[in-house]
Amino acid sequence: MKLIALSSLFAAGLIGAASLFAKSASNEPVRVVIDVDRETLGANITERAVIKIGLDGIKLPRRESRPPVNLALVIDRSGSMAGDKIAQAREAALEAVRQLAPDDIVALIAYDTSVQTLVPAQRVGDGRGLEYAIRSLEARGNTALYGGVTRGADEIRKHIEDARYINRVILLSDGMANVGPSSPDELGRLGASLMKEGITVSTIGLGLGFNEDLMARLASRSDGNTYFVQNSDDLPSIFARELGDVLNVVARRVVVEIEFPEGVRPINFVGRDGVIRGQRAELSLSQIYGGQQKFALIEVEVSPGKNGREREIASAKISYENALTQQSASISAKRNVKFSEKSEVVVASANHQVQADYAANSLAVAKEKAIELVDAGRRDEAGALLKARAQEFKSMADTYSNTAVASAAAVAAPEAERVARDGLDNAQRKAYRAESSQVKSQQATGSR
Asked: Strand, helix or coil at 42?
């Protein structure tokens, strides 16, 4: 019987049935699980598959057991922030400080035409000094965004040698960077260099006047979160959500190394910027949060396997620093697949969650490409690209009875038509960029 094949990748099935967890000590903060889009591949044919390397952060038993935070709040106070925006920014910063412990470290930096350190890096203590400085924030001047981030990083560095601290810059801006370096590439390079130091930058873009390409690039290259906030009233909840991640880091300086045996050729990462060299692939992450999963998806080509046989498809080693103990640790796992000539066996072995994750990340990549095409005046091509993804997802959903992917296809199809007809307005472009970044980094977007 001829096997059912899809042009890209497919997945579906019960997560538990297709997962292999690595054995680890119960007190380790990370578990690794390797899943495949199908537990059984077609026999005697060259196959394509998706491998998912999932890293599960173990939720902290108590908030007080968390590692301390070394935080820099970098707030835009340029003239465009006047009125409700700066008022809500003050309230959001105050709410963030109230979540911290006396021994956490906080710096407050404000930027407009110039950059000013209102509170140098210091212990929160009773918080009174910080609250006074935050309440003094007033809007004025232009937007020296790059200088604000670098000043925030300078304050972080004052305590970076103390391995106990989780180092984070939270940047808020509502305008274009118009003082100092201002291109996405320049801010992306800054983010990458800060990640190497163990500093993560999360960005919050407010309103419709900021450069979403710049903000998303800075966050993603430092492995931080990115947010698009149209209404300043939402700022306090966004700051609270971001602090929820910062206060739940369980592992950091994470390196994922994946080995593929002979007969399995890695093709590309889907959604993440990993490196493939021959039969090895590698990915670095800044941190893992308790109660959340981070993962990497890799497309592979698998040489023909014999009917009824089983063989290894991938092995992974995860190296990291335990954020609670500051001790280095590693964990490993491997994954086998079976081969069958029966298409019904192949279909029944599919993993629905891997398929849904692949669809979400494939669409996120397509949305980023669609932005480029619309910017270049090629909205017909942008619509065609999104339509192709919608058709792929519908085929996947029909073949594997995957309701999550069916829903994705149902949303993507009319979106493709709209983009081809109308392009992307400012708000839609910002939403595309933020949603794409959030999906690819597996950023938690729900309430805590």
From this structure: strand
